Please model this.
Amino acid sequence: MTSEDAYSQVVAYLTDVFEIPAADIRPDARLMEDLDLDSIDAVDLMVKLQETTGQKVTPEQFETIRTVQDLVTLVQALHTGK
Model:
């Protein structure tokens, strides 16, 4: 999966599920501060990542996610099984 594919997947999910305007989603946007996601949203996001990739997301992996780009990098890693 390319970075562009992962980014498109992340944008689609954030706009569809959390109703965040696509214009607000940038690689450097912080999930909590800029996009107003909360801890419950984070859990929903982790579950969705596991469903779409078939890979388990560890708490350690998810703790490092702060920005949209961090999320894109995780999606790519999960798709490659790393």
Summary: The chain has a mean pLDDT of 91. The domain at 3-80 is CATH 1.10.1200.10 (Non-ribosomal Peptide Synthetase Peptidyl Carrier Protein; Chain A). The chain has one domain: 3-80. The CA atoms of residues 10 and 78 lie 13 Å apart.
